[in-house]
UniProtKB/TrEMBL annotation:
GO terms for molecular function: ATP binding; hydroxyethylthiazole kinase activity; magnesium ion binding. Catalyzes the phosphorylation of the hydroxyl group of 4-methyl-5-beta-hydroxyethylthiazole (THZ). It is an enzyme of class 2 (transferase). Pathway: Cofactor biosynthesis; thiamine diphosphate biosynthesis; 4-methyl-5-(2-phosphoethyl)-thiazole from 5-(2-hydroxyethyl)-4-methylthiazole: step 1/1. This is Hydroxyethylthiazole kinase. The keyword S-adenosyl-L-methionine does not apply. The gene is thiM. Keywords: ATP-binding, Kinase, Magnesium, Metal-binding, Nucleotide-binding, Thiamine biosynthesis, Transferase. The keyword Transmembrane helix does not apply. It comes from the Bacteria.
Length: 265
């Protein structure tokens, strides 16, 4: 599996997929730069009249519901139907869906317009969408991860998509199988937007390999987590330094290093 992940990761740089992002204001710059560091090309197009025309040109769409405005909501709906007409894959991050019901309503409206290929959230968000109890504090998960694989498999089977949950161990599931990603670092919890950035990296991989959504999602999280491990080993206990090094390490990461250092089950 690591061999296939390495091939997809190197394809991101060779294909340079265009990723259309409608994401939250807290982390929009970080998401744009992490996509660039991956080797893809970000476009932060969220004006509704522009989103519908731009979405079909993209290799992948990334929706993040973190600081959802009325304009963003309208843009996501416009982009959804436009992308559906061209088969552009969509990854959605349902930030705080367990504590803000409006976001669940929007997810259902998006699903009525198009197919969501990848649903990526933290443990509490994924469990909430699966109808299970998850512990959250605002946008942050306090969930221990117990039963998370089952929740991912349930969502994947019910909605015919890839369910990716981040936590101490990341889990990526499709209908009948799942993978655990063991790389990572606790320093992700010390910076804002780690989850948003991880979603951007998955979107880059999905744009490069849309026919392999499960493997592309695993690849994105694996590369992001491995870059985090490397950054943490140099940063010590300094989250600001870690953030900067995270971009650098992802930028220089190559497929052969995923094979050597990646840890999957």
């Amino acid at each position: 599996m690591l061999k296939y992940c390495a091939e997809i990761w190197d394809e991101v740089r060779s294909k340079r997929p265009l990723v259309h992002c409608i994401t939250n204001y807290v982390t929009v710059n970080d998401v744009a730069n992490i996509i660039l560091a991956s080797g893809a090309s970000p476009a932060m197009v969220e004006y509704p009249a522009e989103a519908s025309g731009f979405a079909p040109l993209a290799s992948a769409l990334y929706f993040n519901l973190g600081t959802l405005t009325g304009e963003q909501e309208a843009a996501m709906l416009e982009a959804s139907w436009a992308a559906a007409s061209r088969g552009v894959p969509i990854i959605l991050d349902p930030v705080a869906c367990g504590v803000i019901g409006r976001k669940v309503d929007l997810i259902e409206r998006i699903k009525s317009l198009c197919k969501i290929q990848v649903l990526k959230g933290n443990a509490a968000e994924i469990k909430s969408l699966a109808g299970l109890a998850g512990q959250a504090q605002g946008v942050d998960s306090l969930d221990t991860g117990e039963g998370l694989a089952e929740a991912c498999l349930q969502l994947a089977a019910e909605d015919k998509l890839i369910a990716a949950a981040t936590g101490e161990v990341d889990i990526v599931a499709e209908e009948n199988r799942y993978a655990c990603i063991l790389n990572g670092t606790p320093l992700f919890q010390s910076i804002t937007g780690a989850g948003c950035m991880a979603g951007g990296v998955i979107a880059a991989c999905l744009g490069a390999a849309p026919e392999e959504a499960w493997l592309a999602s695993i690849t994105g999280l694996l590369a992001f987590n491995l870059a985090g491990e490397r950054a943490a080993s140099q940063a010590g206990n300094r989250p600001g330094t870690f953030r900067t090094l995270l971009f650098d390490e992802l930028f220089v990461l190559r497929g052969e290093e995923l094979v050597k250092e990646g840890r999957l089950e």
